[in-house]
Amino acid sequence: MALLKFGVGQAVARREDDGLLAGRAQFVDDVAFGDALHMVLVRSPHPHARLVAIDAAAARATPGVVAVWTGDDLAAAGIGGFATSPALKGVAAPPYPPLAQAVVRYVGQPVAAVIAQSRALAERVAAEVWVDYEPLPAVTRLTDALAATAPRVWPQAASNMVASQRFGDAAATDAAFAQAAHVSRIAIDNQRLAPVTMEPRAGAAEFDAGSGRVIVHASSQNPAGFARNIAGVLQIDVALVRVKVHAVGGGFGMKTMVHPEDVLVAHAARQLRRTVRWRATRNEEFQAASHGRDQRAEAELALAADGRILGLRVRLYGNLGAYGSGAAAAINLMIGPKVITGVYHVPTLDLQSHAVVTHTNIVAAYRGAGRPESIYLIERLMDRAAAELGLDAALLRRRNLIAPEAMPYRTPMGETFDSGDFPGLLDKALAAADWSGYAARHAASQARGLRRGRAVSTFLEWTGAMFEERLRVEVGTDGRVRAFTALQAMGQGIETSFVQILAEALQVEPDRIEVLQGDSDIGPGLGSMGSRSLYIGGSALLTASQEVIEQGKVLAARALEVPAADLDYAAGRFRVAGTDLGIDLAQLAAQQPQGVLLADTTQKVAGPSWPNGVHVCEVEVDPDTGAVTIDRYCTCDDVGRVINPMIVAGQVHGGIAQAIGQALMEQVVYDADSGQLLTGSFMDYAVPRAADLPAFDTRTDESQPCRINPLGAKGVGELGTVGATPTVINAIVDALRPLGVTDLPMPATAERIWRTIRQAREPCTGQ
Question: Do 460 and 666 meet the contact criterion of CB atoms below 8 Å apart?
């Protein structure tokens, strides 16, 4: 039966892929709008400057140019700015308008908008808009911004460290360190990254004169959230904004955020009563799409003589960029710290997290959003401690893992893990990776003149972001089941997973099921971010399906004139037990005043889910060139109940690939003196290709389902990204440790590794 082949737990091919692979999928820049106008932005070439004057008279007089706006024009029209992060409550953050007013604070910040009959004309005229800048002192690096003499990014703030949080018990931690037999220390950087999506940001906006509404076409992860945020900046009722999302070529967190261009195109459509569109170039993406990571961390681990953890002391410094409107403040001050102790029993913690501003582009959510940074820190620290104590890295971890019988377990951060068998998962991963057979592979590499290293990471992450989601399920008179949701497909296979849940719960053929998304009018929920689509959205879908059945049973009992207790439900039909008398869902729908059976559900869960995993990596390093080859990579992941094993594997693969990109090659770099972005194209910013990656051996363990949602699933979209970066870097350090290397900053490029080896061999030369 087709239903059995399409139920939960089946490796069903993603049904959304046919249109993508055949080229039928329509991305926002593919949508035809006839006589649409085109918007191009004038961007600041300075990291910090006063806007003395903008002369747009000649540009406005150019034939074919419809409008040229500056920040002052927007202010006069009543346009506001982006809201400051709630994590910075009480902080005197400067306003962040869609077009700069008075001052620019990063290279690439929009200064003026040119709207013309064609894109080519708009680009030409934008290049001719004359802006008089008075350059001001700038600081682009996080560590430089902490200096007392650093240029001030926010004039109202006392320093560039604009907010701090403290967690744990400092006195108890000091006492633990006083008793320690050994203390391991580390200082690391998570470099700034660009969330490189296959589809750059783009958008268009139409004005509906009849309703007064603006319809914004966006590449977005959360259409309803986009509508709310655009309306907020425009300072209009959210009912006047509709957001429609087409195919999305990757989001990675960057497309949860409303950028200046999204607001400007909506304002242009409202003001001009015309359709207006825009599209970012790759250079603009590197300059002005939100960035990720950019965190400095320092930590100390107090250990007993047998290697058991006594206490942990951490100091985090996160770069927000030039404004406080992104998610970086929450990521650094609150979200990342949630997982700082990992899967280990840490009796006491002293953590301080700080938010720092610089004259750089906004930092916001990027796949993992704080959890990769924290897990990178604790896993690097655990490996260093193992090396200093002369212990096997897996053994040190095993001694400190939280036991399954301790669940639910409350961490020093006040978070509660509801489920997990961390020691069991470690055993399975080590067996799958042939941890005990490493010596032979090491010897074989040595014989070829290569340095072989290995590493294991045991970790978890926090998923869910916001712990409720609203969606609607309808059954029509045609027997079709339609789910209306704000959760958004962006390559993660969510449509197929939702169909599997509905097909099993309602016992209907998958061909009768439609998932409708990408429209703020039909999906009022919170959208896709923080690995919440399945964990909360899938749970909402299951609950809605059960509500359809329960409501249907009451209606069927009335229609069949029997007690509801006498009815059975199977294969989309209610039947009186022991008889052929029954009625199906479509017939019931036809009897309702609106012609549908409806469940409008708001699913709430008790808190986050805690997917966890064990990654094992082996690398070979050529000491003569610094080149790294990832030879083996094995994972065993607990993501709770698995809806589609193939989709889970794909999500883990993609996450590992992005983490390897951070480990080995990716880095956004600003020049310290000029503030210019040095990595403004793919000529200077490297991302991993297929040849850079090994064949991943990924496995799942379903023995520990989530206990606080009805589906039993945990998030998976960011798990690979959380675990892979420390695993790869620790494996490289392990390979180089016999040469005297104890640390290696990211990205671990061949040149950097070669120089590190040379410096370790010649410690006194300073070369």
Answer: no
In 665-706, alpha helices (H): none
Q: What is the mean pLDDT of each run of 10 residues along the chain (767 residues)?
A: 70 89 93 94 98 96 98 97 93 95 98 98 97 98 96 95 97 98 98 96 97 96 94 97 95 93 98 98 97 98 98 98 94 96 98 98 95 98 98 98 97 96 98 98 98 98 84 94 89 90 94 93 82 83 92 94 94 93 95 92 86 98 97 97 94 96 98 96 96 95 92 91 97 97 97 95 58
- CB–CB of 748/692 below 8 Å? no
Q: Scanning the structure block, which residue is given the tokens 């261009």?
A: 261
Would you state the pLDDT for residue 767? 41
Please state, as a whole number, how many other Cβ atoms lie within 10 Å of the Cβ of residue 534: 34
> pTM for the full model?
0.95
180 CB neighbour count, 10 Å cutoff: 17
**What is each CA distance from 211 to 37, 126, 206, 215, 524, in whole angstroms?**
21, 33, 12, 11, 20
Containing H/E element for 186?
strand 182-193
Cis amide leading into 747 (omega within 30): yes
Say how many CA atoms lie within 13 Å of 587 toward its Cβ: 13
Query: What is the per-residue pLDDT for 373?
Result: 98
Q: Which residues contact 211 (CB under 8 A, 6 or more apart)?
A: none
User: How far apart (Å, rounded) are the C-alpha atoms in residues 117 and 692?
Assistant: 44
Q: Which amino acid is at 358?
A: T
Please choose, from the candidates 418, 397, 387, the residue with its C-alpha nearest in 3D space to the C-alpha of residue 343: 397
Classify burial at 697, counting beta carbons within 10 Å of its beta carbon; exposed 0-12, middle 13-18, buried 19 or more.
middle
User: What are the CA-CA distances from residue 58 to residues 244, 351, 629 (Å)?
Assistant: 35, 56, 56
What pLDDT, on the 0 to 100 scale, is given for residue 1?
41
CA-to-CA distance for 433 and 634, rounded, in angstroms? 6
Cα 542–chain centre separation? 25
Question: Tokens 């990408």 correspond to what residue?
Answer: 518
Q: Which residues are 206's β-sheet partners? A: 215
What angle (nearest 5°) sits at the alpha carbon of residue 209, between those of residues 204 and 214? 35
C-alpha torsion angle, residues 195, 199, 201, 206 (rounded to 10): -160
Residues 6+ apart with CB under 8 A from 192: 291, 292, 293, 294, 319, 360, 363, 667, 668, 669
Residue found by looking up tokens 């200082």 in the block: 187
- pLDDT score, position 763: 60
User: 3-state SS of the chain: helix, strand, coil percent to 5?
Assistant: 35, 25, 40
Write the DSSP string, 111-135: EEEEEESSHHHHHHHHHH-EEEEEE
3-state secondary structure of 594: coil
What b/e string do you get for 31-44 counting C-beta neighbours within 10 Å, with b at 16 or more?
beeeebbbbbbbbb
Rounded Cα distance, 86 and 84, in Å: 6
Residue 383 one-letter amino acid: D
CA distance 346 to 180: 13
CA angle at 655 for the pair 654 and 657, rounded to the nearest 5°: 65
What SS3 string covers 337-370? HHHCCCCECCCCEEEEEEEECCCCCCECCCCCCC
Where does residue 307 rank: exposed (0-12), middle (13-18), buried (19+ CB within 10 A)? Answer: buried
User: The tokens 């004359």 sit on which residue?
Assistant: 130
Token digits of residue 389: 């104590």
Question: The tokens of 710 are what?
Answer: 């009805």
Alpha helix ranges (H) inside 507-591: 539-560, 585-590
- Do 620 and 588 meet the contact criterion of CB atoms below 8 Å apart? no
The SS3 assignment for 497 reads helix
Question: Residue 448 and residue 426: Cα distance in Å, rounded?
Answer: 31
